Amino acid sequence: MIPADMQPSDVVERSVELAGAGRYEENDKFLRAGLARFPSAPEVHLHAGAAALARGESAEAKRLAFRAVELAPEDPGVLTQAASLAFNLEELGDAERWIRHAADIAPDDFALAEHLAHLVGKCVSGWLRERDNRLTSWTSHESPCDARTDHGRSTGRKNRPRDPREGRNRTAPERTG
Question: Which of 30, 51, 98, 133 has its CA 20 to 30 A from that of 17?
């Protein structure tokens, strides 16, 4: 199914055409053939990963993204595309690691910097969303610390800070001025 003169970049280009025409099943078959023909081409793995994600196959998309990074761990373009895929899979730790590594490899690449800035913005939004979800989860349940202060001794005061004057030796004169 893959012509003999076709290169990995041609596989990606043809896949984009097939998907753009709505020929998804044909595209999936074509990408599988592309992976079989070019098992060491990270760009084919990344594109197949994006197609897997579109089909709802998150585990396969993640596997393909990791394989692409294994094949080209020092290629900032591959790292950036893998980070984008990881972000869409909500694998924010992987996305962050790959973004940082790509930026370390090519700190002066303007196009890469623009792409990385876009991804960082998406990741920050994702991290904030995650944080908000955790905070909402935490605040929707009463904390075991709410009714306890002073190293676990119950004070009967809920959500009230301890008065620093409590427990002070009252025989000592108060300092003024």
Answer: 98
Which bin fits 41, alpha (ψ -120 to 50), beta or left (φ > 0)? beta
Residue range 122-155, pLDDT digits in tens? 666 666 666 666 666 655 544 444 443 444 444 4
Q: Is the pTM of this model over 0.70?
A: no
d(CA 49, CA 35): 11
